[in-house]
């Protein structure tokens, strides 16, 4: 794979550290716990680990409110634990990606503490402070992502500060060069310690309209939607100047070899592409969340893949995401049969796949009793279906009381409902989802066509999604049945091949020619190489 980079041919595995493995019996996962579970990740066959934030934090948003960018929260361990983990990840041949949260700090960050003291504070301009509107209300109509006004009045100085998320997460002012330099130093702190890259939180939010103009009303808003959607976010994010900020971050990474910059961006494709940057000097991988957001419909997914492929800038590397800590579990959305097809899709598409912990064993949304709700979003906008806790529950290692995650009561409920929805059971069962993921990851490593090959659409109808991957004489056909009825796909005249892998256990080696009979919920990988 020497002609491509690790973040191009590799697979990224996202760990939500509170929920992966508790090593010290406090019911919350930690860095040492992750280290102890590394043999599992090696066995599974992923190439890089992205860990959600573990920095010191009051945990108002579970680590996405950072109080110190250059340390480890005691809940998760120490810098020494981090170094040990990093050493072992690298010794296992994997890469380590950190979550970087530059848009906002915690309100307990010393920078904000200093900023709020007086209007003349040296750090006043590190955040976004404004006078009240003439009626005493907030300076503009912007809405927080978690509901309510995005402005918080601060008695001490009689001004409002802006927070795109919780009031405990004041937004930094990235128009101020001192903020940029301070954050670049934070990046270097971790790069010097050997991290291989960053997933940058809400990167499209970093710059806001200079004049902080009101956002226009969204005419398509419907009352069941989140409050944020009442307005069109025209002025509060995705501003042209953000690309300069990202290019500067990228330049910091370029001071080191082989590092990756991944951007978290929820935008339509045409806006997303700008985040590769002019001359590809922006994010290496602007996250592509289309599979999370689209109806599970073969025709629709077929066209979105093609639209994405076409929209990519020359040389821009694609990527696909099937789950993360902000979205409902994929196996819950699609059911167990299609979760297998989805695994096959994620790991055969062209582009770097990101896999969310637990999706490989089909973890589903875990019911959270009202008294155990943790997610601040659910607390702010209750009962509307925004709770992210159900997709953040402890990794299910076995079917013991605490699923092998901890020997204390875990911070979120564990899921006991299905005795085989855990690593131990599925490791034993060749037909499990876990073993399917392992086989797919292995195949992706063996077959260059799958990891780095070209993508070629194949015409199909109804519930069938088909495409080819090709690389230097190697040609692989992927046929996925996104429906629950059997189908026949007519292959082009003269097309012949052999089954490499079926997600329903069809025998490898079976010869295919002329027509391909595909069962309900089946996904097939067929080698067409002569
Ligand atoms: C995006 C993160 O993924 C989410 O979990 C967090 O709440 C917000 N950014 C705010 O940092």
From TrEMBL:
Q: Which UniProt keywords apply?
A: Glycosidase, Hydrolase
Residue ranges of every copy of the Glycosyl hydrolase family 13 catalytic domain listed in the record = 14-392
Tell me if Repeat is a UniProt keyword of this record. Answer: no
Q: Which CDD domains match?
A: AmyAc_OligoGlu_like
* Xref: SUPFAM superfamilies: (Trans)glycosidases, Glycosyl hydrolase domain
Superkingdom classification of source = Bacteria
Q: What is its EC number?
A: 3.2.1.20
- Annotated GO MF terms: alpha-1,4-glucosidase activity
Supply the Pfam families for this chain: Alpha-amylase
**PANTHER family membership:** ALPHA-AMYLASE FAMILY MEMBER, NEUTRAL AND BASIC AMINO ACID TRANSPORT PROTEIN RBAT
Recorded family membership: Belongs to the glycosyl hydrolase 13 family.
Protein name, entry field: Alpha-glucosidase
What is the protein's species of origin?
Rhodopseudomonas julia
């Amino acid at each position: 794979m020497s002609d491509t980079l690790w973040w191009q041919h590799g697979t990224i595995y996202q760990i939500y550290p509170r929920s992966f493995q508790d090593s010290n019996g406090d019911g919350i996962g930690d860095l040492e716990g992750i280290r102890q579970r590394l043999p599992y990740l090696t066995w599974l066959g992923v190439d890089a680990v992205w860990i959600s934030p573990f920095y010191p934090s009051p945990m108002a948003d579970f680590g996405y409110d950072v109080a110190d960018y250059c340390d480890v929260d005691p809940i998760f361990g120490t810098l020494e634990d981090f170094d040990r983990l990093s050493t072992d990840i690298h010794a296992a041949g994997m890469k380590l990606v950190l979550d970087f949260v530059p848009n906002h700090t915690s309100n307990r960050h010393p920078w904000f503490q200093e900023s709020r003291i007086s209007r003349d504070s040296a750090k006043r301009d590190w955040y976004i402070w404004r006078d009240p509107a003439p009626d005493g209300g907030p300076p503009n109509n912007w809405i927080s992502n978690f509901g309510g006004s995005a402005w918080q009045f601060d008695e001490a100085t009689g001004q409002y500060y802006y927070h795109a998320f919780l009031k405990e997460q004041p937004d930094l002012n990235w128009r101020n060069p001192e903020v940029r330099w301070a954050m670049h130093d934070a990046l270097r702190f971790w790069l010097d310690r050997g991290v291989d890259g960053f997933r940058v939180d809400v990167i499209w939010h970093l710059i806001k309209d200079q004049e902080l103009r009101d956002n226009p009303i969204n005419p398509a808003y419907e009352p069941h939607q989140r409050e944020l959607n009442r307005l069109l976010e025209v002025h509060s994010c995705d501003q042209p100047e953000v690309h300069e900020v990202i290019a500067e971050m990228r330049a910091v990474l370029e001071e080191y070899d082989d590092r990756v910059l991944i951007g978290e961006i929820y935008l339509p494709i045409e806006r997303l592409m700008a985040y590769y940057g002019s001359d590809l000097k922006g994010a290496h991988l602007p996250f592509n969340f289309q599979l999370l957001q689209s109806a599970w419909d073969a025709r629709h997914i077929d066209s979105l893949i093609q639209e994405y492929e076409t929209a990519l800038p020359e040389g821009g590397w694609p990527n696909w995401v099937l789950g993360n800590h902000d979205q409902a579990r994929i196996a819950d959305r699609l059911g167990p049969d299609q979760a297998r097809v989805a695994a096959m899709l994620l790991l055969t598409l062209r582009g770097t796949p990101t896999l969310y912990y637990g999706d490989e064993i089909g973890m589903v949304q875990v019911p959270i009793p009202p008294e155990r709700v943790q997610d601040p979003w659910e607390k702010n906008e209750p009962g509307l279906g925004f709770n992210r806790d159900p997709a953040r529950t402890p990794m299910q290692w076995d079917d013991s009381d605490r699923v092998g995650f901890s020997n204390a009561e875990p911070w979120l409920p564990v899921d006991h409902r299905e005795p085989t929805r855990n690593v131990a059971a599925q490791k034993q069962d060749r037909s499990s989802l876990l073993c399917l993921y392992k086989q797919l990851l292995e195949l992706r490593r063996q077959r260059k066509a799958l990891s780095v090959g070209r993508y070629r659409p194949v015409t199909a109808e109804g519930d069938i999604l088909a495409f080819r991957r090709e690389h230097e004489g190697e040609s692989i056909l992927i046929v996925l049945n996104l429906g629950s009825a059997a189908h026949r796909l007519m292959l082009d005249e003269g097309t012949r091949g052999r089954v490499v892998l079926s997600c329903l256990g069809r025998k490898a080696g079976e010869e295919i020619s002329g027509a391909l009979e595909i069962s309900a919920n089946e996904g097939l990988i067929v080698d067409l190489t002569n």
